[in-house]
Amino acid sequence: MERFNFKISKFMGATLNSIAFKCVFVLVAVLILRALLLPSIPAIVSRVEWGNIVYIRNDPQESRLFLEVPQIVWGLNNQKIAFARACLTARMLNRTLLMPSLSASLFYKEIDLLQPISFDKVFQFQKFNELCNGFVQLGRYSDLSNRTRVLELQKGSGRKWTLERDLEQLREHSKGSSFEDYEVIRIIGKNPFLWHDHWPVKDYAKVFECLVLVDEFAKEADRVVSRIRRTTVGSSSLKPLPYVAVHMRVEIDWMIHCKKLEQRLNTNQICSSKDEIIQRVARIPGLETPAVVYLAVADKLLRNSSVLEGWGEGFVPFEKKKLGVEGIYSKYPYLIQSAIDYEVCLRADIFVGNSFSTFSSLIVLERTQKMIKKGESESSSNKTWPSYAYNIKGESNGPKRWITNMSDLSLQAISYGTTHISS
Ligand SMILES: Nc1nc2c(ncn2[C@@H]2O[C@H](COP(=O)(O)OP(=O)(O)O)[C@@H](O)[C@H]2O)c(=O)[nH]1
Ligand SMILES: *[C@@H]1O[C@H](CO)[C@@H](O)[C@H](O)[C@H]1NC(C)=O
Ligand SMILES: *[C@@H]1O[C@H](CO)[C@@H](O)[C@H](O)[C@H]1NC(C)=O
Ligand SMILES: *[C@@H]1O[C@H](CO)[C@@H](O)[C@H](O)[C@H]1NC(C)=O
Ligand SMILES: *[C@@H]1O[C@H](CO)[C@@H](O)[C@H](O)[C@H]1NC(C)=O
Ligand SMILES: *[C@@H]1O[C@H](CO)[C@@H](O)[C@H](O)[C@H]1NC(C)=O
């Protein structure tokens, strides 16, 4: 809420008619008008001093009430989804989300290996608040007042903790002025995926749009992409070759997970062997060859380093080592490596991924948004930023065309776990 402090009592009675007072009065009036008319000035607290008049304005969009969440864990995109849910929870509670810790390491069972990494070491803090202004906001712990009152909100897991029950609990805590006495609501609980999926795809997309990598890592992604673009074959050296990024999800962690999932869902359309991936990519309709294929894989988690073998004529496959960019990646922990790879896939001429992977799903979501922004959705063909799922058979035995349905009512419908993809 706006708050004005006028220390003008000293003026009262003494110099009411003085010209100086009139000038000051006009200035104050202007400041008030400015504050009312331009509510989106980014400053959280602006302070203008004029003589002994002090005027303080708290930005109305910057809620003085906060939500705190536990450290966010698991893979890059599972972390992004959990982060988005924390943001949307804060939005629902009309609170600013205290900037959470992400995890630099993939291991989530050994707490000491979790390697907390501050959100702003990975994504631009200021940029996030600028882009998400009016939707959700991040705050810093230093924004908290001295006498912070904290309400702990225990989140549950397990069978009793249904989607409805979770939502009901959140609704309860967003109503009623009694909660406004608590500057901080702190969500606690063990399950790293505390946040249930209560929001439409568009809301998630809005949060993801505000996530911009810090310059250091964005530059590393630029370097990798320019290496790929520099690749030439034979005499076709003038025009850059098209580059296909394939999120080859064949790492050991995935193979364990996907086999279980296939059994449970009674399907064989999840895992995809290397050979199946190669065959499907070769049958992408209209793909011009020669083409560079960038294999986005976590080299460390590969049992089998033969991913470069078996690609047919016309395909020039690269992974990090062969491309000579291993040095770029190896400087960084898992989370950053994965984030660089994500950027490289995002910018590819063609992306091919696995419809059961959140990594693939969020790339397709961002590419779909780019496509929509370019106004392609109205034209007769959705040709820019094409994406495919190699685990599902599409036209002429190629991979299935993959576009995110932005009108879907939950993220579940478009990520981790579907063979029903829009196309
Ligand atoms: N493409 C790529 N993947 C990586 C890298 N490092 C780790 N990974 C994998 O990416 C996965 C990322 O997890 P996440 O983004 O949550 O997606 P998902 O596990 O595929 O649903 C991890 O499980 C790792 O196997 C990397 O440098 N590049
Ligand atoms: C915080 O507390 C310190 C000492 O307890 C005090 O000097 C300071 O003015 C307080 N600040 C605010 C913003 O209340
Ligand atoms: C949250 O803020 C919105 C917009 O300012 C308002 O309409 C809504 O009533 C608020 N909700 C709560 C629970 O305070
Ligand atoms: C590695 O890949 C090759 C070629 O696809 C395959 O023949 C071999 O069985 C694989 N080895 C392991 C350990 O998966
Ligand atoms: C293109 O994609 C958009 C977004 O999914 C969809 O709404 C539209 O119907 C598609 N257009 C065609 C011609 O397929
Ligand atoms: C997209 O999702 C909405 C909401 O679930 C659904 O009504 C619509 O049919 C879906 N569109 C496509 C192309 O699947």
Automatic annotation (TrEMBL):
CDD domains: O-FucT_like. This is O-fucosyltransferase family protein. It comes from the Eukaryota. The keyword Glycosyltransferase applies. Keywords: Carbohydrate metabolism, Fucose metabolism, Glycosyltransferase, Transferase. PANTHER family: O-FUCOSYLTRANSFERASE 23 (PTHR37220). Transmembrane segments: none annotated. Belongs to the glycosyltransferase GT106 family. Pfam families: O-FucT (PF10250). The gene is OFUT23_1. It comes from Stylosanthes scabra.
